[in-house]
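Render this sequence as a predicted structure.
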Amino acid sequence: MYLPPSALTILAFAMSSSSSSSNPPRIDSRETVASTRWLSLQTLSYTDQEGKSRKWDVATRTTKQSPDKADAVVIIPLLRHRNDAKDSSRQVDTLLVEQYRPPVGKLTVEFPAGLIDGGETPEDAALRELREETGYVGEKCRVVPQVSRQVNMSPGLTDETVHAVVVEVDLGNPYNQKPKAELDDGEHVTVKRVELNAGLKQVLEEGTSQPIMGLYLFALGLELGSSLL
């Protein structure tokens, strides 16, 4: 049976794809190169889809509990009065934190975030970190926090994963009238309360602090969603 060159190319590609899929890449070993209190530098030996042995350097947290558990939570707070939750016309605010990050040598602007303690659920970690970093108390029972699947932070550099957690903050709660952060020693955080749409975009575009990628993409997604609807 005659097959034109184009068909032969497609057939060869299909056979190659089938062969590759039957040999998924795998991690063969990990070697710790150096370690500090919080971070470990490891060299991974792995086998790629073609069966070739390769190496990759990776930074990992010494506090990492398990490959199947996220290291931290990133909190997306939604600030409004409880009675306004179903009224889309009412303003919704969010919270950003500004702090100096030594690795980049700059002030950054981010969503509140923090590590998940041992035995802690992502929901509990998000509520605790929100209270400690900003002083605001989130809802747990009346409006359950929404937790994302595990997401990567910078997979070419680190194995760190996080959960994004959406937390409702009732401005009618007396604890949220005069919120006071509970910062650890050495933490210097400035809390910014901004309007979720226009205010968020303004802070990212006009502010002097460098936005973290996840926050910038969140703001960009809001803008694109509004313009496409």
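Summary. The longest strand covers residues 26-35. The chain has a mean pLDDT of 88.
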